[in-house]
Design a protein that fits this description.
This protein is α/β, with parallel strands linked by helices. The protein is built from eight helices and eight strands, in the order ααβαβααβααββββαβ.
Length: 234
């Protein structure tokens, strides 16, 4: 005849308490057994998650896009010799950078509205004109000078490349603005070996690379985890 053990309130409370303390006990053991100062890194992970790297824009300017009531416009430009072979690359890039900034708590002007303004104002001369018309605090201006999706001298190997200058203009209340940040961006993806066109379609690779490029630019303005880029090192 089998016997069943009835759980008393005391035993239930002891079991629950034990379960709550197990992770802490495990962490303590790990901290005591890991050599050197690595246990400080582990402790930081346990308390606050993976460390976040401060974006370069904030480091250099001591300003942040996520401050209260800050509004940002994103504009990209590519010369005719690039858009002739890569249609709408400036619009695609500005749209995806804007989407990433929005995802990271930045108040963004709808990129479709910005792109419509560019079409209706073909003689625009400075990003500050856009900043003044849309009453924003900052304009992110991406000036694309080189762009390609294929490995040089190949039509069967994909490797995304882009050279661009990313600038930020800070707007004044009177509609004037000045450039307060500049960064040259040289992008290469994949970094190790190109992708074969037999493994991925042109449209799929183009889609991948624009997300990669937008993330490289976006990280100038929002924090990201140390080691996040490992997934891209292919």
């Amino acid at each position: 005849m089998s016997h069943c053990k009835i759980a008393t309130p005391d035993s239930v409370m002891k079991t629950a308490a034990c379960r709550r303390w197990l992770p802490a006990c495990f962490a303590t053991v790990m901290l005591l057994t890991i050599p050197g100062c690595n246990y400080f890194i582990l402790l930081g992970y346990l308390i606050g998650g993976p460390p976040q790297l401060q974006p370069l824009f904030e480091k250099e300017t001591q300003k942040s896009f996520t401050d209260k009531d800050i509004r940002v416009a994103v504009v990209a430009y590519a010369p005719d010799e690039l858009t002739k072979f890569h249609d709408n690359i400036h619009q695609l890039l500005s749209t995806r950078v804007a989407a990433l900034l929005h995802k990271n708590q930045v108040k963004i002007i709808n990129p479709d509205v910005i792109n419509a303004w560019l079409v209706n104002n073909p003689d625009w001369d400075s990003p500050t004109e856009i900043g003044a018309d849309f009453d924003v605090n900052f304009v992110v201006y991406i000036d694309i000078s080189e762009f390609s999706l294929y490995e040089p001298d190949s039509t069967s190997l994909f490797r995304g490349r882009c050279d661009a200058i990313v600038s930020v203009y800070e707007m004044e209340t009177d509609g004037d603005g000045k450039r307060i940040f500049t960064k040259n961006v040289t992008s290469l993806y994949p970094t190790q070996v190109p992708r074969s066109a037999s493994d991925v379609s042109y449209d799929q690779f183009r889609h991948e690379y624009f997300f990669r490029l937008a993330d490289e630019i976006g990280r100038l303005f929002y924090p990201y985890g140390n080691g996040d880029d490992i997934q891209h090192a292919t």
